[in-house]
Amino acid sequence: MNILSRSYMLQNSELKTNGKDRDMPEITQGVYFIPGQDEFIPDAHVYVVGMPSSRDLSIVDAGLMGKGRYKIESIQKLGIKLSDIQRIIMTHTHLDHIGCLKEIRAQMPHAELWIHEAEAAPIEQGDERGVYGMEMFRTMCQSQYGLKPGEFKFKVDRKLKEGETLEMGGITWEVLHIPGHSAGSIALYDRDRKVLIPGDVVYADYAIGRFDLHGADGSVLKKSLLRLAELEVEILLPGHNRVVKGVKAGYIRDTAKQWAPYLR
To answer: Which pLDDT belongs to residue 24?
Structure first.
């Protein structure tokens, strides 16, 4: 098994064996967890962020094709009105994160779409190389799911930039540009409560995201991991795998160290 396969398998297998994490919809006040439902392709987790009373909520990521109904129903089961969700923020635009975006937006057409500027332009232009990652995967998915070229062309309402501060729903989030897994990967960081949403850059169990896809770069991913290692993180909310509460000091740095020989 090559090292990229190991990273990919870790991101999927651990979630299935930790059912207690699936029963934890409210991670901390104003942060809610909707676990992905993996198929032969992984389905990204969704996080709903914001104090419900603010009526200024956001969802982070969407998920795989066909999962929109599940994600919408999960939001409603939390007692959240769809009209209170003001925006959808993408940590990045890989297929397992953006696949059901169209399904979700059909139920909340008022919600804005926010993506980092490095991936917003290709999405607006209908350039789907960053969505599929590689040509072989594009061909397979278009055949399996009946997807057509241009399926993931969207208007982006806000192009996020490194260092922005987002005041949303009574919580302050910092936007961190952490490329390497994809060109426009971002993390959202709540410095006050030490909550990190890193997309697919780092997971639980010393796993990291792939770095062999379009726009990816192992050496850049290493720098992004080391940047995240400088943060104080107590709650880690990755795009796949289990969530982690009580992250041990030095965890992200240790993860980067383990993968360093491959991140060149």
So the answer is: 59
**236 and 196 in contact (C-beta within 8 Å)?**
yes
d(CA 264, CA 258): 13
What pTM did the predictor assign? 0.92
**Domain residue ranges in the chain:** 3-262
Residue 12 has pLDDT above 70, yes or no: no
CATH topology of domain 3-262: Metallo-beta-lactamase; Chain A (3.60.15)
Q: Which helix (H) or strand (E) is 195 found in, with range?
A: strand 195-199
Looking at residue 248, what DSSP letter applies? P
DSSP 3-state percent helix, strand, coil across the chain (nearest 5) = 35, 20, 45
Q: How far apart are the C-alpha atoms of 128 and 123, rounded to whole Å? A: 7
SS3 letters across 107-169? HCCCCEEEEEHHHHHHHHHCCCHHHHCCHHHHHHHHHHHCCCCCCCCCCCCEEECCCCEEEEC
Tell me if 27 sits within 8 A of 33, measured CB to CB: yes
Closest CA to 165 of 185, 192, 203, 184: 192
